[in-house]
């Protein structure tokens, strides 16, 4: 690790579902600070035997996304513009590369969209994503866009009492 520079102090990694920022690299172990402000001590053999995501090895910014479903019949162009608007004036969101909205699918209960954007500080991206979701909720409410909840139709059929048998 120290020789090939695959990890550097300051890198943001994900290992076994935990995200941490590398604070120290030693011969036998590496220390990382988690988003919960806990120190994670990682034996260096983990970096050889397991998959590690290094969010910042290529560059400091990383791509993030938020998925949201809207009611069938919603104005898809309005939804797209509101999703993009939700990123305006958000700390940590980069304007370049530009954000994009993908109309992902026709879901069971909703039209599925994904807002893709870049953040400059991936260590704090959950806070950024939360702020963007608050803004999406506010904008959708202001413009009458509904986020549906899953719905199921349940049908009850009468039972013919003459056809039922009693096995007692």
What is the rounded distance between the termini?
Answer: 73 Å
Query: For the largest beta sheet, what order do the strands appear in spatially?
Result: 4-3-2-1-5
Task: Detail the poorly predicted runs.
Answer: none
Radius of gyration: 24 Å
Supply the key terms.
3-stranded antiparallel beta sheet; alpha+beta; 5-stranded antiparallel beta sheet; single chain; flat; 30% strand
Task: Explain this structure.
The protein has 168 residues and is α+β, with helices and mostly antiparallel strands. Helices cover 19% and strands 30% of the residues. The protein contains three helices and eight strands. The strands form two sheets. The protein has a five-stranded antiparallel sheet with strand order 4-3-2-1-5, with no helix packed on it. It has a three-stranded antiparallel sheet with strand order 6-8-7, with helices on one face. A hairpin with a 2-residue loop joins strand 1 (12-15) and strand 2 (18-25). The longest helix has 18 residues, at 125-142. The termini are far apart. The mean pLDDT is 90.
Short summary:
This protein has about 170 residues and is α+β, with helices and mostly antiparallel strands. About 20% of the residues lie in helices and about 30% in strands. Strand 2 and strand 3 form a beta hairpin.
SSE map:
Blueprint (H helix, E strand, L loop, with lengths): L11 E4 L2 E8 L3 E6 L4 E5 L2 H4 L3 E2 L7 E9 L5 H10 L14 E7 L4 E9 L5 H18 L26
Antiparallel strand pairs: 1-2, 1-5, 2-3, 3-4, 6-8, 7-8
């Amino acid at each position: 690790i120290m020789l090939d520079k695959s990890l550097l102090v300051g890198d943001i990694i994900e290992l076994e579902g935990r995200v941490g920022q590398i604070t120290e690299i030693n011969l036998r172990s590496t220390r990382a600070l988690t988003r919960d402000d806990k120190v994670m001590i990682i034996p260096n053999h983990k970096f050889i035997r397991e998959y590690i995501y290094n969010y910042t090895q290529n560059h400091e910014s990383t791509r993030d996304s938020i998925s949201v479903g809207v009611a069938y019949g919603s104005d898809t162009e309005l939804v797209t513009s509101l999703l993009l608007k939700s990123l305006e004036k958000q700390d940590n969101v980069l304007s370049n590369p530009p954000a994009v909205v993908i109309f992902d699918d026709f879901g069971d209960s909703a039209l599925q969209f994904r807002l893709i954007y870049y953040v400059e500080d991936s260590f704090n991206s959950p806070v950024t994503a939360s702020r963007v979701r608050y803004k999406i909720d506010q904008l959708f409410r202001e413009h009458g866009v509904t986020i549906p909840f899953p719905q199921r139709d349940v049908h009850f059929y009468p039972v013919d009492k003459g056809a039922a048998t009693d096995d007692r």
